[in-house]
Amino acid sequence: MSTSEEAAGERLSKSALRDFGQPIPHEERNYDFPSYTVTLSPQEAPLPVLLRHALTLIGIRHNGPGEKVAWWTIFTYKGYPCELAHQKFGLRLRIGGDLTEEHAGDLLAEMRKKLVSAVRTVEALLVETASDILNAGNVTVVNQHRQLRRAYDYFRARATNPDVVEDVHESGESETGKWSTFLLGKNVMALNASHDLVAAISAFLSSLEHDLVLALPFLNFDPSKDDLTKIIGDRWGEKWRRVIGHSDPEAVRLRERLAEVVERWRNPYSHGGFEKGHGATVYLHTPSLGALPVGLSSIRDSPLFSFHSVSETDVEGVFALFDEIDAYVSKTFPYAMQWIDSGLDVRFDREFTEQVAGCLDSEGDLVKLVDAYAYRQAMIDNMDY
Is this prediction's pTM over 0.85? Predict the structure, then answer.
């Protein structure tokens, strides 16, 4: 353990985890006594591995994986044999021994409270190295391509075919005389289409930025040199320059046209699904804990506003441009898009980039690598170890 981990372990052993101890040897344990179990909710322990690591810091080892269980750790609490196990259907905390159900319930409640409390110490320890881990490329970025494209497709369909609004003609009399109003349905439809067009543009930019970041490990991303935090926080134009470049005249033309659309219809807002408030979209490859989700809290904030009236020509022109950009990206980065379209998350570490390069050299595409990772992910999801 590092000096920081040793200090954290010492604090925990004197505070939240002072009643936790090493497991009773198998040959000394009486298995005739009953066992009692509770399941910790995702709200209590959203990252079960952090509870496990708190116990690791005080010298309690863990085991696994096994059939339908990612890991388990055996220990004692106030002298009673206990187990914490991350199983397919939940995080289970158990206690056994010569206990009544009521007494066991009290002890389980104490343990879950203390374990959850110990997570704060673990989180503080991880914060010390999180930035270095992220910027070294030892992260997995959640692939949100499908979700972002669904939002784009939804607003595009609404902007292209707005709901029909009938003309409204009303009249009546008041103290000042007769009055009448006329609302032209086509004008309302045009206004509605403009709202949906702006939303579709924002969704497209978010999807494009996200895909440009996900494409990096399949191109020339260097974990030792590139600043991933900066790339994620850059505006879409900087991401475009970093990934697509400006040497190809077609790329320059498409970027200029996209800039015109953005300037006219949309204030700079999204960063490809990486903003604060979107939940954890980046996973740090943390030694001994695996990939842990983190939120990025320092990405630029810039809300969108402004709605403009829109014509059918405007709508058709914007979406025709977007179709051109989609086609260009797919043609220019076919292997990156092959992975992104699969829905698999993307690693940014050197081992993964070397796997990609090796598969392309030997196979000419990424079909085998995609299949291998998809199989591995299914195994993890079902805990079929």
Answer: no
